[in-house]
Amino acid sequence: MNSAESRADRFARELADLKISDPAAGHPRLWQRLGAAAMAAGIVLAASAYLVSHRTTSSLTQGDAITIGLGGLTLGVVGAAVFLRYSLTGFLRFWMARQSFELNMLAERVFSGSLLAKSDGRLDSGGGSVAEKIPSGA
Amino acid sequence: MSVLLELRGVRAAYDGVTVLHGVDLSVSAGQVVALLGPNGAGKTTTLRIAAGVHQVQSGRLLLAGCDMARAAPRDLARAGVCLIPEGRGVFPNLSIRDNLLMMTYTGRSREQIEELIFTRFPVLGKHASRAAGTLSGGEQQMLALARGLATDPAVLLLDELSMGLAPVVVSRLYEHVAEVARQGIAVLLVEQFAAAALSIADHAAVLVRGRVALQGRPDGALRAELSDLYLGSSK
């Protein structure tokens, strides 16, 4: 029982150390929106800086515009990366869950169908594997 | 025995419709608690709350004395709460070995997991390379249980282990569950079919329409009351 107690103690310790994240906080959505906003702001900044630099002959203003333009491009790239990271995570999570569900359904359909059709309609009672019950050569 | 899982006055709802009306339940280390009740009583919701998958409306979810009602399911899973859902939840297109490999996220190596699981469930070791979808219902449920045990759980939550299985297979699976509990794991077992669950339970609670209608040791008195609840009172 010592090992049992130690597992229970370890469980209590790990729970006490746990920093509880609030599942309702919706951090991924916040980051996704921030990323989209940064991407849009970066593009606007870069485009504005391009236009400003073309409408002046002052090299000082052009220098400022180049700096702002580069900053805008950087902001746009970082924003795009953040947006993609959080939107892709959500999409891939959904895709994986759907894939897993569909495979499960397919497997159930295929194997239960094979069983009913090829083993005299007897249902699997758990005594052996499905593969074993499908007649050889089938 | 320390109480590892405790629900105190837990209320829960789906889209504003309350399905649990103040459930009180506790499971200690090494104890098997059977949560019984008819379809739609709120048994699976209770398990989902214990695993952190469903948020409580009010009340407390205590794990080893800590209030975890706001914890994310991944945090609880990492700490040692393991939910084996109804419908087994194995990857049918992956082999048994690969299904077990998925559980190495807990930090255990593949070798450690295989040694632990194949020793306890030799039949899984024998068919280690076979796709999980080709196993019988009983073997798939065994694999689901094995995947749960591979995470080194402190609290094991089992939902309808017997679903769609022959009584002899269910009885073998329950022997494994009893063995797991003897090692100090707290087991909360949800079942619609009472007889099998009561055979290994140390404590039983019956949920009816979101309320614990009765609970106690699974002795003759409880079985008689349970029979009345399921079939209607003979008095």
Task: Tell me what you see in this structure.
The complex is a heterodimer of chains A (138) and B (235). By secondary structure, chain A is mainly α. Chain A has one domain (28-133). Helix content of chain A is 78%, strand content 0%. Chain A is built from 4 helices and no strands. Chain A has helices spanning 2-17, 27-54, 59-118, 130-133. In chain A, helix 2 (27-54) packs antiparallel against helix 3. Chain A is elongated and about 85 Å long. Chain B has 235 residues and is an alpha/beta fold. Chain B folds into 2 domains: 1-80 and 172-235, Rossmann fold; 81-152, no CATH class. Chain B is built from 9 helices and 10 strands. Chain B has helices at residues 43-50, 73-79, 96-101, 110-120, 122-126, 137-149, 167-182, 194-200, 220-231, and strands at 3-14, 17-28, 32-36, 58-63, 66-67, 81-84, 155-159, 186-191, 203-208, 211-216. In chain B, the strands form 2 sheets. Chain B has a 6-stranded mixed sheet with strand order 6-7-8-3-9-10, with helices on both faces. Chain B has a 4-stranded antiparallel sheet with strand order 2-1-4-5, with helices on one face. Chain B starts with a strand and ends with a helix. Chains A and B meet through helix 1 and helix 3 of A and helix 2 and helix 6 of B.
Which labels suit this protein?
heterodimer; A: 138 residues; elongated; B: 235 residues; Rossmann fold; 2 domains; 6-stranded mixed sheet; 4-stranded antiparallel sheet; 9 helices; globular
CATH class of the largest domain in chain B: Alpha Beta
- Domain tally of chain A: 1
Number of strands of chain B: 10
Give the fraction of residues assigned to helices of chain B.
Answer: 25-40%
How many domains comprise the coordinates of chain B?
A: 2
Gross morphology of chain B: globular
Strand content of chain B: 25-35%
Distance between the terminal alpha carbons of chain B, to the nearest Å?
A: 38 Å
Mean pLDDT across all amino acids of chain B: 89
Main interface by residue count: A-B, 34 and 43 residues
Give, in spatial order, the strands making up the sheet with the most strands of chain B.
Answer: 6-7-8-3-9-10
* Average pLDDT level of chain A: 78
